[in-house]
Amino acid sequence: MSDTVNQTRAFEVLTATPIRKRRKPRDWPDDEKARLVAATLLPGANVSAIARGEGLDPSQLYDWRRKAIASGSIAPLSKSVHAQVRFAQVEAVARPPVEIVVRDVVVRVTGDVEPDHLAKILSAVRQA
Questions:
Q1: How many CA atoms lie within 13 A of 93 on its CB side?
Q2: Is residue 9 part of a domain?
């Protein structure tokens, strides 16, 4: 037999207690979600601070806000109970339009035109 089998061995037993148990998902009522989303849309609002103040993970509040804006069903959005907040759609323009002159025709192109579509337009202008 091997000498290592008869040697004294030391074992350390580790005991641990869980730091915290996992929280059960909270079922938030729609009016409560709407109130929190509306609060995030006010000027100067800090979404993370609002979420943590309500005991909510900021990513959850950002998700509610993203879904509400995408669906167009943000209600009620108000600074107070009766004052509704209005939104304007703003499209950022990365660069000014490019003007392409073909004979006596000017084609103005912005950055959101697909190249294939632009090629068809220019081909039609040349043939006209």
A1: 6
A2: no
